[in-house]
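Dear support,

I submitted the protein below through the web form. The confirmation email said the job was done, but the results page showed an empty box. After a refresh the structure appeared. I'm attaching both so you can tell me whether what I see now is the final result or a partial one.
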Amino acid sequence: MHVTFLGLVGLCLSVACADISFATEPNASAENQQQLQAKAKAMVQRAADSASRLDFYGTYVHQHAKGLYSAKVRRGMSPEGRATVIDALDGPARRTVRLSTEVRAYLPEQRQVRVYPGASVRLDFPHPPVYDFARVVEHYQIRLATGKRVAGRMTDRLEFIPHNQSRWSVHCWFDQASGLMLKTQTLDTNGAVLEEHSFSDLNLGPSQQPIGLEAPFKDVRSWQRVTAPIHREPMPQALKAYVGSMGFHPLAAAKVKEPSSPLPHTQWLFTDGIALVSVFFIQDPKLNGQSGSTESTDLQGATAMIIGSKSGYHLTALGEVPIDTAKSLLATLPLP
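What the results page shows now:
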């Protein structure tokens, strides 16, 4: 399970927004571009440090193709170390807890606690969505602007604009005082916003109440505890040798063992520095090693999903990229 929340809202980029933009234009000097890239990298690193180090609590909103999701978010010390606790405000009552050693989902309707061992590879909000800054500068133009207020706090905005239409644009707003990322948007090739994550209100510093991981639920000890069958594994040699397609390179590998399947599924993750694409392989002897085919495609907000088959495997690709980009990635992949 990826504990993530996706989003969608309008965006004004006109002069009326009163943003002062400093961009890496094509005719800008190499020195100026390097200075801007260095400043952007420092902002991203400061935001990542703030998301891990600072205590905060507030309300989080995620708008996306399927609607709006909101939650109360707290970050601070718990009896099990530093933790992020997310309580859903929409739909069924549920709580997500992110620790350095695992992610837990408390599901009172099922009286179940689902446990996902290990730290999540995915960088969840408010961590900035940057996995490899060196690759970012290969595929994106960087712009820096003075942003509007977000959650009542003044911000600076970084814009990552792709060099071509094989990926989406990403805008991030950073609190000037703390460096914490307060908002992020993913935009399509026409500048329309596909998804948005944002704090609607935010308080820095410890919450007035200590973080109890199992509150407000009762009798949690009697609930069923289910450990997700996901295990990180060393990068296989075939993946190490993969040169990348469309600028996407391997990030991690895992095995997923489902009770309904005699063989474990393989999951590989790829990134271009910002966008993340997961590919799942399921071996099926009934395919008789047949060549590849695409069975279905779908685009929900910024997330593309492709289901197909290749050389005896069922494949599913899921990632924040245009569908054609995901197709190109699948076409070049080695097999587990």
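Response: this is the final, complete result; the empty box was a page-load delay. The first helix runs from residue 30 to 53.
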